[in-house]
Write a structure and sequence with these properties.
It is a single chain. With 698 residues, the protein is an alpha+beta fold. It folds into three domains: 152 residues, Ubiquitin-like (UB roll); 356 residues, 2-Layer Sandwich (Creatine Kinase, Chain A, domain 2); 127 residues, Four Helix Bundle (Hemerythrin (Met), subunit A) (Up-down Bundle), CATH 1.20.120. Helix content is 48%, strand content 13%. The protein is globular and about 100 Å long. The chain binds adenosine-5'-diphosphate (ADP) and magnesium ion. Adenosine-5'-diphosphate binds next to β9, β11 and β14. The site of adenosine-5'-diphosphate has 15 residues, from β9, β11 and β14.
């Protein structure tokens, strides 16, 4: 086996490859484009394209594709081969700068949430030179943004790049005020921890619900679940270890910094965390990670489930989005500094995040809202649907002291005047990392823990970058016009703490008391479900903020709002239809067959005329018959509510109807079917049980 450093990134057209394959001036010009967004001219693009093609062909590629992230949540690609006919009726491999820079996939089948009605239907993809091209499956993948002809974003990358630009602009203004003139750019770093389940392919094939919806819609609790706490960080089983080893290798070849792997809380649940990198690349890499997890799993006879709640009654899967801001000179702006001045700057950036999370808690909640994630948030396995920040005791008491101008016990000073007095040298928080908090400060980064495992991390980071850019803009506006920088800074920090401390909560987020306090006393938003929160995307303050930083246009926001609601509706309807079909074609026939056989057994026993006791069979037949009746009734009810879902003027009304009418009927049907499972002999049951699914991988 080769050493990892020898093959790490071997399929990536990265800086090192560019340097060796491109003429120096072209390399420099491309570097400028990558780092400063300078426009690229045709001549340079042609040379880059040709070098990319030669390199890709040498690595086995025959095709190229513009790889993009439409609003479906997954990635999209259309492959074209490099071949072009040559004069001598042979072929040559060709790839032009034009083909590199722009592509024109047919946009009409991607969700556009009404944008197509108002804008030109055609869409085009544009090369994103900040994320490296790579070779996979004999194809050169070129990361691209996807826009409509009139420039409206039809994807997740475009607004993400815009949000990064906004954050960069505002953060630089602040850094200049602190006299940091050498810093050229600021970017957010992200490390997403990805949770997933592995089950055997064989079992998967037998479960239509997992196939169609990614989760189990039926299944009685297995006698053993996660109660022994024996899976978390447990020994990794050989089959899983083999999967992880191959996954790592594939990811490393693509330059993905796969770092940590371990078993998670639920049986068959695992996690993979990469080393953090810039938001845009982290987002592309997370998409690749999810894709490769599924591909590699199938090579090992496994199926990787990325759904947020594949199994009821045990933990679902999330994705912790570790986020921080850093300068191009390598300084983490969320890392407490050594000098008073650095500490004042740190506190200002910290306050910017606190203010952002409080002001735009709704947008953060919205950014993680899906039908799947609704099953996790607030279900005592993931943070509640209420956004709050965990800061830890030490940092909280420092903020307290600043707000109240009181003595902080960690220093001798009586008052903390920022930038003037020596601030306490506070250590990274070493207290328990409070896993119940949706947004936790963990020393030098924030960990946003509300994301669902299948979510693209783009949306959460767009909102986070945007909201923090807005706080920084407000600060910069004020500070740039201030007569006395230090006093204004001090007052501003004090005011932020006073105005936004309601969002800080260091206690247990799972407790009922917190929900009460958060909503009743603190006035925080509690949007339990997707239909509750999505419409707030269009609240005036949100539209104003997001459009003012040019992250979304109003039309784009409306379209996204609609798509997210449509997606919710479609997801639940598919689940409902799957349940109807499974109940009618699999569960009822199985229970009927068992009931009939039991009845026959009873009759035969009786006919033997030996005074045999048939009371067990009779009782069970009676029970089963009544359960069959209940299942039949509940299927009919569910079918009816699904059938009645039409005539909505607004997708919001449909989403609420689905939540309030369809989901309860699905739940009712599940309860009786799970009851039937426990009464029915195993050999009659038409698909694998929870026990089979959760403990099948060795
Ligand atoms: P854990 O939280 O499991 O103890 P870490 O805190 O080391 O582990 O890392 C979790 C994730 O956070 C990793 O993906 C890691 O790369 C990422 N991470 C660490 N530091 C930062 C940072 N400054 N900014 C963004 N992500 C970070
Ligand atoms: Mg962590």
């Amino acid at each position: 086996m080769r050493n990892v450093p020898d093959y790490f990134g071997c399929l990536v057209f990265d800086d090192k490859v560019m340097k060796s394959k491109l003429p120096t001036d072209v390399y420099q010009s491309l570097k400028k484009t990558r780092e400063e967004g300078a426009p690229i001219d045709n001549g340079v693009a042609n040379i880059v394209a040709n070098a990319m093609k030669d390199w890709a062909v040498a690595n086995g590629a025959t095709h190229f594709t513009h790889w993009f992230q439409p609003l479906t949540g997954v990635t999209a690609e259309k492959h074209d081969s490099f071949i072009a006919s040559a004069d001598d009726s042979g072929i040559i491999m060709e790839f032009s700068g034009k083909e590199l820079i722009q592509g024109e996939p047919d946009a009409s089948s991607f969700p556009s949430g009404g944008l197509r009605a108002t804008f030109e239907a055609r869409g085009y993809t544009t090369w994103d030179p900040t994320s490296f091209a790579f070779v996979k499956d004999k194809t050169l993948y070129i990361p691209t943004a996807f826009c409509s002809y009139s420039g409206e974003a039809l994807d997740k990358k475009t607004p993400l790049l815009r949000s990064m630009a906004a954050l960069n602009k505002q953060a630089l203004r602040i850094l200049r005020l602190f006299g940091n003139n050498d810093v050229k750019s600021v970017h957010a770093n992200v490390g997403p921890e990805q949770e997933y389940f592995l089950i055997s392919q064989e079992m998967y094939e037998l479960r239509p619900d997992i196939k169609f919806t990614g989760r189990t819609l039926f299944g009685a609790k297995s006698p053993k679940g996660q109660e022994m706490d024996d899976h978390y960080f447990g020994v990794i089983k050989p089959k899983v270890a083999a999967f992880m080893a191959e996954l790592n290798e594939e990811l490393w070849k693509l330059g993905v910094l796969a770092k940590t792997e371990h078993n998670e809380v639920a049986p068959s649940q695992h996690e993979l965390a990469p080393i953090y990198t810039t938001t845009n690349i982290a987002t592309d890499h997370n998409q690749l990670t999810m894709e490769l997890m599924q591909k590699v799993a199938s090579k090992h006879g496994l199926v990787c489930l990325l759904h947020e709640k594949p199994f009821a009654g045990i933990n679902g899967s999330g994705k912790h989005n570790n986020w921080s801001m850093a300068t191009n000179t390598g300084i983490n702006l969320l890392s407490p500094g050594a000098t008073p001045y650095e500490n004042a700057q740190f506190l200002l950036f910290l306050c910017a995040v606190i203010k952002a999370v409080d002001d735009y808690q709704d947008l953060l909640r919205i950014s993680v809202a899906t039908a799947g994630n609704d099953h996790r948030l607030g279900a005592n396995e993931a943070p509640p649907a209420i956004v709050s920040i965990f800061l830890g005791d030490e940092l909280s008491s420092i903020l307290d002291a600043i707000e109240n101008e009181t003595v902080y016990s960690g220093v001798e000073k009586t008052q903390l005047k920022l930038g003037v007095d020596v601030l306490p040298k506070f250590n990274r928080d070493t207290t328990d990392r409070n896993r119940t908090s949706p947004f936790a400060f963990t020393g030098n980064k924030f960990e946003f823990r509300m994301l669902g495992s299948s979510n693209s991390i783009a949306c959460a980071n767009i909102m986070l970058n945007a909201a923090v850019a807005e706080s920084l803009k407000i600060y910069a506006d004020r500070l740039e016009g201030a007569n006395d920088f230090e006093t204004t800074l001090h007052e501003m920090i004090k005011k932020t703490i006073k105005d936004h401390k309601r969002i800080i909560f260091n206690g247990n987020g799972y407790e009922e008391m917190w929900i009460k306090e958060a909503t009743e006393k603190r006035g925080l938003c509690n949007y339990r479900t997707t239909p509750d929160c999505i419409p707030h995307m269009l609240d005036k303050k949100n539209v104003v903020m997001l459009t003012s930083h040019k992250i979304f246009t109003e039309a784009e926001l409306k379209s996204r709002c609609e798509i997210q609601l449509e997606n919710y509706c479609k997801t639940v309807v598919i689940e409902g239809n799957t349940m109807v079909s499974m109940a009618k074609t699999l569960i009822l026939p199985a229970v009927e067959a068992y009931t009939l056989d039991l009845a026959k057994t009873a009759k035969m026993k009786q006919s033997l005329d030996a005074g045999l006791d048939c009371s067990y069979e009779r009782k069970l037949v009676k029970n089963l018959s009544s359960v069959i009746g209940k299942i039949a009734d509940d299927v009919e009810d569910l079918e009816k509510v699904l059938f009645d879902l039409h005539g909505f003027e607004d997708v919001k009304d449909e989403a609420f109807a689905i939540r309030d009418k369809v989901l309860p009927k699905m739940e009712a049907l599940r309860v009786v079917c799970d009851e039937a499972e426990l009464l029915t002999a195993k050999k009659y049951w038409p698909f694998p049980t929870y026990g089979d699914l959760l403990f099948c991988v060795r």
